[in-house]
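Weekly sync, protein design subgroup
Attendees: M.S., D.O., the rotation student, P.L. (late)

Item 1: inverse folding check
M.S. brought a backbone from last month's batch and wanted to see whether the design step gives back something sensible before we order anything. D.O. pointed out we never logged the input encoding, so this time it goes straight into the notes. Structure tokens as presented (533 positions):
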């Protein structure tokens, strides 16, 4: 666990899920795998989605496999099948159960290999996008299959299927089968070769991977530039390059000149893609060219530039964009007055739904532009992150006035700010007046730490707070929510930051890469010292 558990009020803990009699009958049927297996073949085609969701809810992996193996419809969309429905209002899209998802994929493989004289194979689209990875899973097996694991499993299944078709001389039996598999690919060095093999054999394989979203981490630039051309970038909707992909400004310009992304809606760039310290005139022109090329992405509405150094240059990237941004992450970008003034007065401000200004001293350095930015965004803003912004008790009135008009706000994160319990209590009074708010990530109050501690807190000091005092303060906060009948607001204090499913799943590989980078840096330094000697 990364921090304190979510705090839930009693009304949040016992909410019944509405199910129709039809759904309960489906549950009764699939609860016995042997009976279900005999019944599936004679089930009406329009009952398959109902039976699938019932099986997934009960974690009946065998039944899930059998249903997918005989899938009679043209589309299989996990998001639609597990989402809210008239028969069962519970949304299961955040249940990434290992056994259930493995059963889905193995069932798809069996669908291709299974011969049937009783029905035609109509499946054309197998859509595995739309799943939401969470920190905790309610499934009995307790094991999850994250985005990286789903990528690895599907790529290996495609390759193994083709090998089996060729080995058993089944080409004539599967020649008419062509299923487009929609995926959110997550590629690192560890699964790179497996994914490349599956993409290269796409034409020969009955299962054809179609990458809707692509995330790369711990991947060399050479491998990234190779695989990005295999994923059909012309149809890509989301591109995430993070952490250990060492993409710099000149590499990004080269990418945009060589690869077109006409359908791209969301773009995330890694740390230090831009670093304007010591920028030259040629670099300034490069920034302009990058802005112009980004303007060609007519559907781009989400942009993450976190941890790039963009002091005084945010306008050059954002002003050419033809479409107003709905999601903007400029955390720790070293923005100055000119940058904040541009954001507050830009067309983007009135369309922002998610905004991350973490790492900027907004209340001290830019109080008026910060207030103006949130005021202009108040009609659309749904998620606001202000972590480690040095917001103290002296800024609480500004923060309250800035947040209060944001009536559509659903998530608010402001970890790492030196606020005392009294001022945080005042923020809870604001929370009760935000009708859509349902999630808050709040720091441990400053008065729960020793007075000698200074901010930002070190990792060592973060955990050295008075837990008894914090629990008493937390009970006061919960009482405010309870009195206001706002049991729908979930408050948490993740000590080491918000949970990131992608980082959690690949943490071991990221650690190895970071260790190797450190070793390389030390080796280069020793070599340089020897050369000096």
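Designed sequence read out in the meeting:
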């Amino acid at each position: 666990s990364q921090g304190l558990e979510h705090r839930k009020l009693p009304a949040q803990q016992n909410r019944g899920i509405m199910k129709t009699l039809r759904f309960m009958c489906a549950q009764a049927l699939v609860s016995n795998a042997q009976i279900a297996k005999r019944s599936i073949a004679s089930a009406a085609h329009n009952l398959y989605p109902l039976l699938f969701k019932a099986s997934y809810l009960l974690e009946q992996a065998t039944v899930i496999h059998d249903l997918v193996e005989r899938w009679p419809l043209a589309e299989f969309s996990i998001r639609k099948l597990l989402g809210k429905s008239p028969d069962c209002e519970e949304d299961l899209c955040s249940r990434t159960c290992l056994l259930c998802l493995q059963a889905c994929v193995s069932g798809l493989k069996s669908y291709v290999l299974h011969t049937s004289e009783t029905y035609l194979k109509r499946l054309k689209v197998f859509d595995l996008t739309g799943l939401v990875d969470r920190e905790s899973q309610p499934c009995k097996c307790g094991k999850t299959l994250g985005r990286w694991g789903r990528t690895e499993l599907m790529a290996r299944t495609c390759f193994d299927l083709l090998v089996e078709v060729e080995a058993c001389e089944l080409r004539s039996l599967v020649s008419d089968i062509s299923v487009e598999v929609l995926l959110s690919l997550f590629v690192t060095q560890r699964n790179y070769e497996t994914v490349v093999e599956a993409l290269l054999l796409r034409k020969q394989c009955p299962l054809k991977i179609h990458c809707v979203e692509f995330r790369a981490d711990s991947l060399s630039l050479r491998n990234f530039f190779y695989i990005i051309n295999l994923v059909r970038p012309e149809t890509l909707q989301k591109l995430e390059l993070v952490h250990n992909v060492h993409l710099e400004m000149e590499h990004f310009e080269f990418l945009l000149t060589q690869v077109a992304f006409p359908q791209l809606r969301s773009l995330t760039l890694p740390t230090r893609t831009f670093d304007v310290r010591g920028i030259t005139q040629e670099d300034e022109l490069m920034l302009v060219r990058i802005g112009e090329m980004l303007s060609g992405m007519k559907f781009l509405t989400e942009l993450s530039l976190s941890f790039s150094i963009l002091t005084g240059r945010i306008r050059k990237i954002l002003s050419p964009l033809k479409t107003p941004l709905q999601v903007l992450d400029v955390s720790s970008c070293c923005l100055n007055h000119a940058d904040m003034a541009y954001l507050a007065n830009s067309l983007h401000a009135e369309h922002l739904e998610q905004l991350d200004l973490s790492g900027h001293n907004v209340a001290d350095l830019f109080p008026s532009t910060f207030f103006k930015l949130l005021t202009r965004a108040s009609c659309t803003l749904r998620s606001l992150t202000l972590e480690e912004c040095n917001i103290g008790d002296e800024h609480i009135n500004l923060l309250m006035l800035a947040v209060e008009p944001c009536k559509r706000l659903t998530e608010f994160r402001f970890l790492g700010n030196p606020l005392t319990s009294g001022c945080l209590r005042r923020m809870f009074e604001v929370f009760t007046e935000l009708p859509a708010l349902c999630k808050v990530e709040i720091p441990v109050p400053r008065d729960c730490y020793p007075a000698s501690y200074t901010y930002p807190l070190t990792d060592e000091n973060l955990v050295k707070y008075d837990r008894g005092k914090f629990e008493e303060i937390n009970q006061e906060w919960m009482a405010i929510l309870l009195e206001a009948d706002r049991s729908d607001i979930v408050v948490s204090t993740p000590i080491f930051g918000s949970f990131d499913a992608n980082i959690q799943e690949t943490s071991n590989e990221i650690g190895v890469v970071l260790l190797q980078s450190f070793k390389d840096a030390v080796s280069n330094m020793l070599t340089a010292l020897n050369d000096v000697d």
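Discussion: The longest strand covers residues 207-216. Residues 244 and 517 are 10 Å apart (CA to CA).
Action: P.L. to compare against the previous round before Friday.
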